[in-house]
Design goal:
single chain, 411 residues, 78% helix, transmembrane transporter activity, Tet-R_TetA/multi-R_MdtG-like
Amino acid sequence: MSAHAPADTPIWRQPLPVWAIAFASVIAFMGIGLVDPILPAIAEQLEATPVETELLFTSYLAITGIMMLFTSWVSSRIGTKRTLLLGLALVVVFAFLCAISGSVDAVIGFRAGWGIGNALFASTALAAIVGAASGGSGAAIILYEAALGLGIAVGPLVGGLLGEISWRGPFFGVATLMAIAFIAITVLLRERGAKPAPIALSAPFRALRIPSLGRLAIAALFYNIAFFILLAYSPFPLGFGAMQIGWTFFGWGLALAVTSVVVAPILIRRWGRRRTLMTMFALLAADLIVAGIVVEHAPALVACIIVGGLVLGVCNTALTEAVMEATELPRQVASSAYSAVRFIGGAVAPPLAAWLGNAFSETVPYFFAGAAALVSLLVLAVSARHLAVIDRDPEPAELEEAEALTAGDAS
């Protein structure tokens, strides 16, 4: 069944290739939060400082962001399926190398290689799901966000469970699961005979010059600073063991998954994407400021983390939809350009938060994150004219053309 199937097709009735990509997406996004519960253990057992440990996020996210600028060029030449498989293969290799590493520097380096694989997979997965899903692009985006939310939710829990055995356990776990995903996509995702139209290497760079996409990318950069300070810095002031951190961020991720799939569509229908994002950025800033105030009280900080997950889920879905509607470019180009800027914001946040916490107090990183969320709100507030397009429903002909451009060779 194609992406052009009737819109009233139940969202969960999807062909097997869609579920194969969704499963792989869950595992890919597990990689974001997987190391969260084991950060203190890595710092202790590999004799690393908090700033050095946070570089596990930075190397992964920075390389992911940079590589995002080139993934649409790669996938348009070798095809969607081969790009997905190449990304999965690289994640398997570098996750395994992380698991057998003997120093924090080695793990940081291999996490960078992991980021290359993640960029190739993640930037292509949405387009592949759009090309293969039943029920149109709206259903595809919700499925993708569901996979993202589930992966982010399960990642810390798996990290905590396996981290109780050894800090190496989560890395072995991801390598195994990604190998299963590689086999599933190899078997279930078929290629069409026609090759996708080549995309210029400069396309993502030129895409960022489009005012609507450029403004969204800037807002997402500061939003990701807030996102990753909450995710990557919080394990240190919590003072929990690996399993307690895992359960905390499982709750955070579960909250994110529920609101991204259930609450976000309702708010977007009622308020529109821009107003929804501005409201959520304001709530996120408030939550982070409260987290900074109560940082010395673990139960209160846990509550702020869970509330943050509720808000972040709505933000993620609204931002993804906004980027998909912001331009008439192929979705893969728009997604690559936007994601590159977004991930770079995420790469800066963890070591910066650790430095601010050490240099000043554990309160300051959360206040800084709250300020970053307010910058995102301000960017949207002054961009009403440029972002009017994100609240416009595309005409059926435009939607069909966009989906045809991004389907690649998935079927």
